[in-house]
Design a protein that fits this description.
alpha+beta; At1g16640 B3 domain; 7-stranded mixed β-sheet; 4 helices; globular; DNA binding; REM16-like; DNA-bd_pseudobarrel_sf; DNA-binding; transcription regulation
Length: about 150
C-alpha cells in the first residue's frame, strides 16, 4: 500500500547553475552594475534606499544564495545606511570572479529581525559604459530591458 504524498508547501529552492538565470519571484529586488568600488580595493556594497524601509536597523546575519551556493555575510543596518560587510562581500566577489561592468540582481527572499536572505543573480560580461546609467537604478517598477 502506497502512502499519499503531501504536496510541497514551499517552492523548490533549486538555484540556477553555470550562469543560468531564474525569473524574479515578485519580491523586492535591485539591479546593480558593479563599479570599481564594489569589486576592488574598497569592496563596498551599500544597499539602495528603496530597501531602507524594509531592512532592519541592526547588525544581523545574512545569506547570499547564488549559483547553487551560499555565502554567510553580515548585514550592517543603521540610520546612515544599509550595507554588507566588506570582508565577506570581498569573498563573494572573488569566489564569483566579479569585475567592474558585471551586473547583479539582489532579490530579497526573507527579511526578519534575525536573518536576511538574498538571491543574487550574476549577469557576467562587460556592460558598455553608455548603459551604466540606464541600469544603475533598476527597480521592480522599472525592470531591466536589454535591446
Amino acid at each position: 500500500m502506497q502512502s499519499a504524498r503531501k504536496p510541497p508547501t514551499e517552492l523548490p529552492t533549486m538555484e540556477p547553475q553555470n550562469g543560468e538565470t531564474m525569473p524574479l519571484s515578485g519580491k523586492p529586488y535591485h539591479a546593480f552594475i558593479l563599479s570599481k568600488s564594489h569589486v576592488a580595493p574598497i569592496y563596498n556594497l551599500v544597499l539602495p534606499a528603496k530597501f531602507h524601509s524594509i531592512l532592519p536597523a541592526i547588525v544581523i546575519p545574512a545569506v547570499l544564495l547564488c549559483r547553487g551556493k551560499k555565502w554567510k555575510i553580515d548585514y550592517h543596518g543603521n540610520r546612515r545606511g544599509k550595507a554588507l560587510d566588506s570582508k565577506q562581500w570581498r569573498k563573494f566577489v572573488n569566489d564569483n570572479c566579479l569585475k567592474s561592468g558585471d551586473a547583479i540582481v539582489f532579490e530579497l527572499l526573507e527579511c526578519s529581525s534575525s536573518i536576511l536572505k538574498f538571491r543574487v543573480q550574476i549577469l557576467s560580461g562587460d556592460i558598455p559604459l553608455e548603459l551604466h546609467d540606464k541600469f544603475s537604478g533598476e527597480t521592480k517598477e522599472t525592470p531591466i530591458h536589454l535591446d
